[in-house]
Structures are given as C-alpha cells and as structure tokens.
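> tool_call: predict_assembly(chains=two)
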Amino acid sequence: MEDEQSFSDICGGRLALQRRFYSPSCLEFSLSCPRITLRSLTAVTCTVWLAAYGLFTLCENSMILSAAIFITLLGLLGYLHFVKIDHETLLIIDSLGIQMTSSYASGKESTTFIEMGQVNDVVINEAIYMQKVIYYLCILLKDPVEPHGISQVVPLFQSAKPRLDCLIEVYRSCQDILAHQKATSTSLEGGDRIISASNRRSHSGMGAYWHRQEDKR
Amino acid sequence: MVLKAFFPTCCASADSGLLVGRWVPEQSSAVVLAVVHFPFIPIQVKELLAQVQQASQVGVTVLGTWCHRRQEPEESLGHFLEGLGAIFSHKPWFQLCRERGSKSWSCKATHWQGPASPAASGEDQVMLIFYDQRKVLLSQLHPPTALPNRQAGDTTASAGGLAAVFDTVARSEALFQSDRFDEGPVRLSHWQSEGMEASILVELAKWAAGPVCLFLACLLSLISAASACRVFKLWPLSFIWSKLSTCEQLRHRLEQLTLIFSTQKAESPAQLMRKANMLVSVLLDVALGLMLLSWLHRKDLIGQLADALIPVADHVAEELQHLLQWLMGAPAGLKMNRALDQVLGRFFLYHIHLWISYIHLMSPFIERILWHVGLSACLGLTVALSILSDIIALLTFHIYCFYVYGARLYCLKIHGLSSLWRLFRGKKWNVLRQRVDSCSYDLDQLRLLVVAVQGLIHLLVDLINSLPLYSLGLRLCRPYRLAAGVKFRVLEHETGRPLRLLMQINPLPYSRVVHTYRLPTCGCHPKHSWGSLCRKLFFGELIYPWRQRGNKQD
C-alpha cells in the first residue's frame, strides 16, 4: 500500500512524503528533497567563469580558463556525490530495528541501522536553528548502564528539514509500531508506557518533548 | 509475536529437507545454517549435530522443515513433514515452503501443545530475512561503541541482536566442512556444498611460512642481540643514537619485523590485522625505497648534489652575513639598541665563519658519504627520509642555533607584551615601558623554511609508519570483511505472504578504518600535528627537530 503527500520544508521548498505500508510491522517513509534548480546552477557557473575571465585578463594565461572549467566540473560532481541529498528514507521493522538511508543525487546511498533493543523512543524535539525555532524528529537511544536513561539523540531527516505537519504524520506511525513492539516484547516496559519527563535529559537548547500530549487532545 | 528467521540465500534453491540452525530465544529469531536433504536417518542427523555442537560451542539443532515443491503439491510429503516435527521436537517448529519457479514463499511457526499449557497450539507470524552466508561468515562486525565487557571472550554467543547472528555463523565452520562430493551419511546444503573454497597459492604460502618465519626470526634475534650489546650503551654514543631519527626508525622497523615473523600465531582478529598491516607497510616502504634508489642512480643525482653543495653553502653564508650587517645598522629605518646589536651580530658572524670552515673541511668526503647514505634507501623510504632529515639537521645546526636564540628572545618579548597588555586592561598605567628593541630579529624566511621542512619530514615519516594499508586495501577490494553494521531491503511483498527482507553488510567508512587499525608509531612527536606545528612557529615556542625519548607513546 503506497500513498504520496505533499508538504513543505522550513524554508518553503516543496517536499514529497511517500509512505509504503508493507505489513502491520513494517513501514517505510521516503521524503524527497527539493531538486537542484537550473537557475542556481547557471548562477554558480556564470560567477566562476566571470571570475576566471577577470583573472585571465589580468594574467594573460589561458591555463586559468581551462582550470576554471575543470573546477566547475569537479565541483559539480563533488557536490552531487557528497553534498546534495535526493531523498531520505526511514524504514521501521517491528522487533528488528530502524533504518535510515540517505540517497545522494549521484546515486550513492549511506545507511545506518539501529537495532530495536537500543531504541528508547522516537520523539519530536524543538531547537533553535539560526534565527528560527524548528521541530525535528529524533530517535532516543538507550543507555546501556542506566536502564531508563538516554545515551544519544539521533536526529532524522536532517537534509529535508520538514515542518511539523509532516513530522506528526511520521511520528504517529512510528509510535503505533513502537507501541505494538513494546506491548509484545518481553522487556520490563510491556503494556502501558508511562512517559515521565523527569527521566528524560534534554539534549537541545530548548528541549520540549511532544508525545502523548498530542494524542490526548 | 513476530518471529524472525534468518535464511541463507544459497539454500533458497535447495531441495526439500530439514532446517538446521540455532534458535536465539532472547531475540525470538532462528538462524538457519544448512538444509539436510532426504533420505536421512534421524539418529545420524542427531549424531552429526552433537559433533558440531561439541566442536563449535554453538547450540545447533533441527529447527523445522523446508519444502521446495513443484507445481502439484504432494500430499504425502506434507504429512511426512508434519510427522518429522514429532521426531525432532523443537519449540517453535518452523515450516518454510516455496513453490518452484515462483517468488511466493510461505512460512509458519507452530508451538506444539505441551503438557503444561492448556491452550491450543498457536501459530506465530514469521519474518524472513535473507543473508549471504559466505559474506557474513568472513565479516567482522565493528560495533559503534565497544564496551569493555564485550571484548572478553566468552563461550556462549554474545547477546547483541545482530552480533548473535554473525557470531553463530562464524563459529559454525565445523558444519560447513562437508560438501556434496563427500560420501557421508548425511547430505547437507550450505554455502560450501558446491565444493570447498581453497586456493593453491594460499596453501603453498601457509606451508612455506613455517620454515621462512623460523629462519627470519633467528636472523632478527641475532641483529637485535648485536645492537643491544654494551658498546652502544656508553654515554656519548647512546646520546647520539637517541637523538638521531634514523636510529629510532631502524629500531621501530626491527620491532615490527620481529612481530611479523614471530612464530606465534595471532590470537585475535585485531592482532592478525595489525600483523598484516605492518607487513604490507614494510613491503611498500621497501618498494618505494628501491624506486628512489634506481631514480637517484639513473640520473647520477648524487654526484650533482655533492658538486652543488659547496657553492650553495658559500652563497647561503654570504647572504646571511649581508643580512646581519644590515641588521647591525639601521634596518628599515628602525632605531635599535646599539650595544646589544653589535654583540649579537658579531656572535652570529663568528658562528657562520666556523660553519663555513667546517663545510670546507668536509668537502672531499661528501660524495662518498652521500653515496653510502643513498644505499640505505634499500631498507625503506622512511629510512631514507629520516637520514635526509638528520643530514639537514646536522648541516643547518648553526641556523638552528640562531633560531633558538631568536625564538627565545622573541618569546620573551611576546610574554613581556602580553603582561603589559594585561596591565593595560586593568586600567593601571605602568611607567616602566622599556621594550628590548634589539631582539626584534624576525624569524628569517630561511630559518623558518628549514625548521618547517624538518617538521614536515617527521610528520611524513610518521604518516607512512602509521597508515594501515592492508586494512584500507581490504576495505577497497573486499568491503564485506569490515562491517560497521547491516542494512535491510524489503523484497517483493504480497498480502497474505510473510514479509521478506534481504540483509546486506554495511561496510565501515574509511575514516573509521584508519582510526581503528592505526599502527602505533615510535611516538616521537605525539604533541606534533600539522596545526600545532604552525602554532609553535607563530608563538615562538621551540620546535625540537630531534627525537625526544621521553615522549614515547605506545
């Protein structure tokens, strides 16, 4: 079962959220980032070539022009392969784990997999980013030493940076699967999950956690 | 409750039979290792499993049945498979089924009704995860946080979810020893069932390694014994040996070679990687050194260098003298402290005069010395670079003295200024504002260059020494050997059928490979990195081009 919705990111660009429902225990979200536009590409190329032409008129060395072409090509390839992310995917498999994949514009994929035993919770967190206050979805990892503590915060969808409405969609589905997993697991926190804010340590500038309060409305 | 079944991709096209593997109750997952084909005698299967269990300390049992049937379902086979559950009782009992030629799989796991539980035998949902058995066997998982208690070797498999799967497959090598050409009582299907993997070169190398290692170990122990003899411990010699970087580099290489050719086998995979890294690094070093040697001799660079050395030294001395004369006057219109000027200027001029006499004295012997030094490149590029660095240090010793005097005075001036600035911020007027002007001997470009070049050569030697080339090569050519984790891909899914996933190995990023397998260097400049070199030059802290014994890190 597949459906697609359109959202916007924090800068106003258009994002597409694709949701694939494989089974009640397996869900995949794919968020595609705004593409590289012809306008920005032309602007950068023109700037570099104008600068090179200016240097050429000063130095009378034609190597500068060919060097500028090389730099533009290599820079574009490097940007597409190392910097520009095309879409980010989140795959949640009940009782196995959560997998995040970032696919770059050149096709390269970088994957991280977190086992379910290490996941404490998935929450929406608030942060100050430059002059804005934004929301981001993150995974809280368990501390091996302290059973209710948190050792690390792993933020999701860092390149796409979707807004709150998109995050809420993803958050709801994640919580459904996590609740289902916690209910059937043989760990100590089976059944009802009681979220106590005192157990959480804030890891951001303005930490505020959105969870059950949203559902209680 | 969703159960996970890890199924090897090589058995996906095998004939029907029994599933053999390990059940991990904490993760509710079953790791299938092989398929036992019909016909078999249950007693023999149980004996084989007991043997494997004893050899590998892994709890291998019969997990269920595997049915790879043609278009027409065979009723008798179905009943037969059900009956097998009674012979090999296992909770839960897996029944995997696949239609030949199509991608539809079906699997169910049933709990047999035991005497204690009154509930009817329930069926659980199963998730199929395919894995490449050969890659998982050869791979080594690098967990993101290595806890200290995980490193301790324990007889049972480790508890972490996917680490348990990797561990089980890696330890069950005893099960994969028989292939289909063996005439054993039980016929198995696994990754090696088409024929055991082996290579003639590897077998020959293993056979030859024993005597070669023994011979080389004896030779190396003789050399170390000779170098440790009492003659070299006398005071002037020991001081010189400790200061020269060539000796340190030779000693480091000797230690590494002793470790590589020691007759003990490596205990852990980390030690094996270290040995392999050292060997590859030594071989590359020697290869580069021989290339350098052939290049030097082809162009007769040594003769040209020896001929050019004396005129260059004379030219440098002349330029330095001109510079000192200029500084002793009124440099750039600045007014200096005359007395201090004259003292320091004459002091440095006398240094230069001594040095020029020394160079002229050495001139007949230069070419021979350089030729013999060039031969040392056979031992490796790093040795050649260390000798070059030592020669530069010896030839420019006078410049180093100037640098020391200048840097110390400059440092004093900087400290004085900073204390005055602190006072100024405290809004206190200090009448005493005399500045020692004549010590503004700015670091001459030449001195700066020489010291910087020496620092760079040392850093280069350290880099060559510590880079783990074998691990990087392994990461490039066989990325599945060094695993940072796994990644999953969901295969074609039909409603009503079980969920099928493909588990692939996620290779370790290059930065982590270098960080994990970095070889320990002789640690002569642990405080030095490229950034600290620049910082020391700017603030006037002294840079010591010779090795300091006290800074050894291991």
